[in-house]
Amino acid sequence: MRFIILLLGGFLLFSCDKVKDVFQEKDLLQRPVAKRCSECHQNIYNQWKDSRHAVAWTSEEFKRASENYSKTKCLSCHAPYEITVSDKPNLRDFHREDGVNCVACHFRDSTKSMHGPYDVFSPPHPSTQDLQYTKAEICSGCHQETYKQWKTVATEKNCQQCHMPSEKGKLIQKFPFDLFHASKEVHHHGFMVPKSKKDFFDVKISKDSSGVVLKITNLKVPHNVPTADHGNPKYYVDIVIYKDGKEVYTDSYMITPKEAFLPKQEKVINIPYLESYDKVKVSLSRKLSWQKEAEKIASYDF
Ligand code: HEC
Ligand code: HEC
Ligand code: HEC
Ligand code: HEC
Ligand code: HEC
To answer: Where is the Cytochrome c-552/4 domain positioned along the sequence (predicted)?
Structure first.
């Protein structure tokens, strides 16, 4: 019963010309902090608040690396006003602690509305459907290096498909408005970094006069691993060589973004071990810029 009344009320309101004025919440068009959007977009907000984008300004690493925010050329991607395609954005001069927040990515001065992937009816704020949001280009103004690397690979997948996976759900959770809006694909706003799986890399081992030769190819990630615009992520390749059941040689190689695993390209590591062996174990692990410790990715036995 309550539902029917709401539905009727809803139809009356929909037909009313003044619906926009009645429901519009003007402060939403004045670039508020992300928390403000959580009143309706609660699920998306909860994901974002735990994301690296939310701490892009306040992170200790950034504070240190930007010399306590004194290196001005570093600041704008970490507290942007409005994102742009391929160029770095301008710096905000308010709410900087909010990092890469909702309005920086969604609100446009040009239309005074929220741009997004859908054609929606959103009385609290105007919205504009903008298909750029479904393309890799929307990330390119800040993730410039990664975008350039991705561009060189023939792949169907864009950044969102791997870093903002979607599932069916509501864009908003606020009662009773949520009842009037159909479910859609909602993209995860945690901007997580999936872990590579064992078969993402092809690992081969051989022997020549200089010792053991290790060849590793990044088969599945369509950008460098590790990739970075300014952080300092690392990969580690650990090697253990066995003879007669005993460890006879161990070594560890650190892979920085400068000597990364390029998509579909073989990387050769020469191990100066000339004796014979029975078994070799190669392990890969990674440490994202902000992680304190490395985590295991996979190991390969030969
Ligand atoms: C063009 C946009 C842009 C500019 C300018 C920029 N950054 Fe970044 N920064 C990024 C992006 C994107 C990342 C995400 C990390 C990645 O690509 O792996 C990042 C990540 C980082 C990280 C790692 C995050 C963390 O919390 O550990 C640090 C530290 C950092 N940047 C410092 C800087 C410094 C210092 C400067 C100035 C020399 C700078 N950034 C300028 C875009 C930018
Ligand atoms: C009072 C409720 C309310 C608040 C607060 C609110 N929104 Fe919305 N928003 C909506 C509704 C309703 C829709 C349409 C939902 C649907 O059709 O499924 C929507 C849709 C959107 C869309 C999708 C647009 C598109 O074309 O794909 C974006 C982006 C968006 N909102 C951003 C924001 C941001 C950013 C904030 C905070 C500044 C915010 N919203 C605050 C109610 C709200
Ligand atoms: C306004 C600039 C900006 C835009 C636009 C942007 N990012 Fe970021 N992104 C950053 C910064 C800065 C960081 C690093 C924050 C930190 O760790 O301190 C980051 C971090 C990330 C991370 C986490 C990296 C890690 O090491 O954990 C992912 C994943 C990511 N972004 C994906 C995306 C995707 C996908 C898009 C496009 C939909 C996008 N970003 C758009 C600036 C941006
Ligand atoms: C096919 C899926 C896929 C696509 C498409 C993709 N990525 Fe990634 N990305 C990954 C995986 C997997 C990792 C983690 C690799 C690892 O650490 O093992 C990663 C890592 C990252 C990282 C973390 C930085 C680091 O330490 O290496 C950032 C930032 C990132 N991607 C941004 C992007 C952007 C921007 C795009 C689009 C231009 C994009 N990715 C496209 C799968 C993808
Ligand atoms: C780094 C940029 C970025 C940030 C920050 C960001 N979004 Fe998004 N958002 C996107 C992109 C890109 C899409 C579209 C993904 C697609 O369709 O492939 C999207 C989609 C949406 C949609 C449509 C539903 C969906 O998930 O496709 C809503 C609503 C939305 N965002 C609200 C928000 C709110 C609220 C916040 C803050 C809590 C926020 N966004 C933060 C980039 C961002």
So the answer is: 37-106
Q: Which residues contact 205 (CB under 8 A, 6 or more apart)?
A: 212, 213, 214, 215, 280, 282, 302
**What residue numbers bound the domain in which 263 lies?**
198-301
- For residue 204, is it within any domain? yes
- CATH number for position 253: 2.60.40.10
251 and 128 within one domain: no
Is residue 79 within a helix (H) or strand (E), and if so which, with residue range?
Answer: none
**Which protein residue has the closest C-alpha to ligand 5 atom 17?**
134
With a CB cutoff of 8 Å and minimum separation 6, the contacts of 208 are: none
Task: Walk along the chain (302 residues) and give the pLDDT tens digit of each residue.
Answer: 455 545 545 554 454 455 566 788 999 999 999 999 999 999 999 999 999 999 999 999 999 999 999 999 999 999 999 999 989 999 999 999 999 999 999 999 999 999 999 999 999 999 999 999 999 999 999 999 999 999 999 888 999 999 999 999 999 999 888 888 999 999 999 999 999 999 999 999 999 998 999 999 999 999 999 998 888 999 999 999 999 999 999 999 999 999 999 999 999 999 999 999 999 999 999 999 999 999 999 999 99
Residues 92 and 119 reside in one and the same domain: yes
Indicate the pTM of the whole model: 0.95
Q: Is the CB of 136 under 6 A from ligand 2?
A: no
Ligand nearest to the CA of 232: 1
Best of 133, 156, 162 for a ligand 5 pocket test (most atoms within 8 Å of beta carbon) = 133
Residues 150 and 204 in one domain: no
Mutate to test the pocket of ligand 4, among 77, 156, 159 (most ligand atoms within 8 A of CB): 159
Q: Is 224 in the pocket of ligand 1 (CB under 6 A)?
A: no
Upper half-sphere CA count for residue 149 (Cβ side, 13 Å)? 23
The domain tally of the chain equals 2
Task: Find, among 89, 32, 80, 85, the residue nearest to 53 by Cα.
Answer: 80
67 and 12 in a common domain: yes
> 40 CA to middle of ligand 2, Å?
7
